[in-house]
Amino acid sequence: MKRSMRIAAAALTAALFAVGLAACSPGGGSDTSAAGKPADLDAALSKGGEITYWAWAPAGEAKAKAFEAKYPNVKVNYVNAGSGVDEYTKITNALKAGTGAPDVAQIEYTAMPQFYLAKSLVDLSSYGFGDLKSDFIPGSWGAVADGEKVYGLPEDSGPMAMFYNQRVFDQYGITVPTTWDEFSAAAEKLHAADPNQYLTSDGGDGYFASSMIWQAGGHPYQVDGTKVTIDLQDEGTKKWTGVWNNLVEKKLLSPTPSYTDDWYKQLGNGQIAALISGAWMPSLLESAAPEGAGDWRAAPMPTYDGTAASANFGGSAQGVLSQSKNPALAAAFVKWMNDSPEGVKVLQDSGSFPSTVSDLKAPDFADATSDYFGGQQVNKILLAASETVPDGWQYLPYQTYAQTIFADSVGQAYANNSDLNPGLKKWQETLVSYGNEQGFTVTGK
Amino acid sequence: MAAVVASVSKTPTRTRRRLGIPIGWGFVTPFLVFFVIAILAPVVYAIYLSLFREQIVGGSGFVGFDNYVRAFTDPEFWAGVGRVIAFMIVQVPIMLAFSLIAALAIDSGRLRAPGFYRILLFLPYAVPGVVAVLIWGFIYGPRFGLVGSINNFLGAQIFTPLTPDWVLASIANISVWEFAGYNMVIFYAALRTVPSELYEAASLDGAGPLRTVMSIKLPALRGALVITTIFSIIGSFQLFNEPNLLKPIAPNAITSNFTPNLYAYTLSFAGQQYNYSATIAIVMGLITAIIAYVVQLRGTRKELA
Q1: For position A413, which CATH number holds?
Q2: Beta bridge pairs of residue A316
């Protein structure tokens, strides 16, 4: 009997540990608003100090180093805390715990609202950041500003284009598609010629789906303060699923999940012959799929009716976290990174596509050639794409969570090679009920 | 008579009691401090959290047992519970049978180098779980992994370990590989405690190897079997590392509610639903404790019979 008690106690203790682990997330959000003034930035820079910067983009560390070189009395502790949602999880935990969050963090445009609505980001307008609006392209500025409030400065931007493997296209006699109908026909032709060959890959990605709907002219998420409307069956969405369903149902998309080793290998050896992606893709291809050097080209995104249209896909900003002990210095670092020639140059050297108007308009930017892309002037195509991004797009104030649960509903349609629309409806249902639980007023159409 | 005894023992009892209380507490305090801080406080805090609901808009409010009502009617949660139960029913017996046979084989004295096999089988347990899953992720890779190579060789997609139909079995396979050696060592240790006289007596009585296993070795292993079964059940209910690490390469097969722990993790760290997540953890902890206790009761009843 005694031993049995001991075993029961062991079982209970193990169960308690399980509960305890899940419980390490204390409550309480802080509402810190910096009441600074523009002059505070220079004062903070001359005074110096130490700040922590979390980012994962390739330019992150280089920016911190260049900033330290320029202002020797400032120390920037650069930390790569994981990319995207991995970093946000750590930031959210640190904010909950009340300590441990960085002063400055890289945050994707898609995740900005969830941080500023939770009052986790400092409103930088008191430092005069509102005046910087004209320095940035509207699409990127819209992601960091909410009315008069400015919660960060845009770093890179991601106008979409089609990147394709010329060698594979030549080998199988495929001409560069300019419409989605041509794109579907090419996908069928290529896969029929060799079952290991796919025109493109998509295993299900909520951000990609959103950008595709954006290009088709859809506005599935509409946000007005805390009032949210979700319509994942609007005209634009239907237009996109009209094309994409055909590819999904006929198994013409490589199901290899994006950003995995297998995926990069297929991009390098040409088994995935084209990607519809953001302006950050060329530098990613160059570093992660070096075998494809010289084979790849860029072209405008295929269209529905011949009218040029693109969308944004990805792109990040830097914001100052409300926990920062030195918001003025942190703001000065954000401003230097994204709104000074030296800061933006570091970004461009890493192959990213900037958001600053002056750098995008510079002649040597458009004329730059890429060896990976066979000497093509890739930036020209991306610049043209950035001009044709439909206006008025909005993301949900909880888009990161939406992305996390995309696989549960829409991903199942991808896995079963079936109609995406029921999956999108189910996704919408979950997003509506989640939003209402979180205190938003969400209606689903 | 009672009065006499009482009066005789009066003085020493008092002294012991006077000194005994502080000394006893002194011995217990180090453990108690650890217990309260590391085990009791988080549980109490989790229970406290589970009675509230914090929203992105509108802050935190007391909701009573709303979160529990929601948990008991949440199909996503129960789908995950069903999955780990299915996992447990299939994986635990296979793993323990494998461990048992391995332990009996090594203990039989008929192997040439038993120490070598013992270490070989135990080795996977020494590999960190995260690394093990990464290794298996590479093996399971449908394009360029080992499975991909075998499929290419056979000329068809025969093995698809990362599809929704097979992914649970693939995870079970990883778990068997990881933990069979650990359980084998427990069984082997229990077998070593069997006195050799028993074997001698058995062979004098004319018992063959099979009879020895059935009548001596298996009864000796009963206690170890109960313990390993309970630990394996708890392990099954806490399934998290394997699905979480395989998710990037099988995003559609491993949903965010694949196991209750993964669900609690997604709710808390991606959905910021700390309160509901704490509720899920408490409900899961209770279910685990109940099932472990039932198994333990049944196991010991057999032992007594």
Answers
A1: 3.40.190.10
A2: A108
Token pair recorded at residue B152: 């290419």
Q: Nearest by CB to A15, from B49, B143, B288: name it.
A: B288
Q: Residue B163: closest CA among chain A residues belongs to which residue?
A: A415
Sorted by sequence, the CB contacts under 8 Å of residue A432 that are 6+ apart come out as A230, A442, A443, A444
3-state secondary structure of A390: coil
Contacts of A9 (CB under 8 A, 6+ apart): none
Return the SS3 of B2.
helix
**A78-131: per-residue pLDDT in tens?**
999 988 888 998 998 898 888 999 999 999 999 998 899 888 999 999 999 999
Q: What percent of chain A has a predicted confidence (pLDDT) above 70?
A: 92
Tell me how close the Cα of B34 comes to any Cα of chain A, in angstroms: 13
Q: Which residue is listed with tokens 């007005």?
A: A224
Same domain assignment for residues A190 and A237: yes
Domain that holds residue A438: 161-311+371-444
Q: What is the dihedral of CA B2, B7, B13, B14, to 10 degrees?
A: 130
Q: What is chain B's length? A: 305
Residues A145, A174, single domain; the answer is no
Using a CB–CB cutoff of 8 Å, tell me whether A367 touches chain B: no
Spell out the residues 6+ positions from residue B2 whose beta carbon is closer than 8 angstroms to its own: none
Q: What share of chain B is helix, strand, coil (3-state, %, to 5)?
A: 80, 5, 20
Residue whose tokens read 């965010």 = B256
Could you say which DSSP state residue A310 is in? Answer: -
- List A residues 240-299 in contact with B (Cβ-Cβ < 8 A): 256-257, 259-262, 265-266, 271
Structural domains of chain B, with CATH: 15-62 (no CATH), 70-304 (1.10.3720.10)
Site of tokens 């609901």: B53
pLDDT of residue B25: 85
In this structure, the dihedral spanned by the alpha carbons of residues A185, A187, A192 and A195, taken in order and rounded to 10 degrees, is: -170
Residue A331 one-letter amino acid: A
Taking an 8 Å cut-off on Cβ atoms, the answer to whether B56 and A405 are in contact is no
**A321 near A315, Cβ under 8 Å?**
no
CA geometry: angle at A66 spanning A63 and A68, to 5°? 110
Please give the C-alpha separations between residue A19 and each of B45, B129, B227, B285, in angstroms, as whole numbers.
10, 21, 21, 6
H and E: helices and strands count for chain A: 20, 15
- Give the pLDDT confidence of A273-286 residue by residue, as tens digits: 999 999 999 989 99
**How distant is the Cα of A411 from the closest Cα of chain B, in angstroms?**
5
User: CA A69 to CA A65: how far, in whole Å?
Assistant: 6
Do A404 and B288 lie within an 8 Å CB cutoff? no
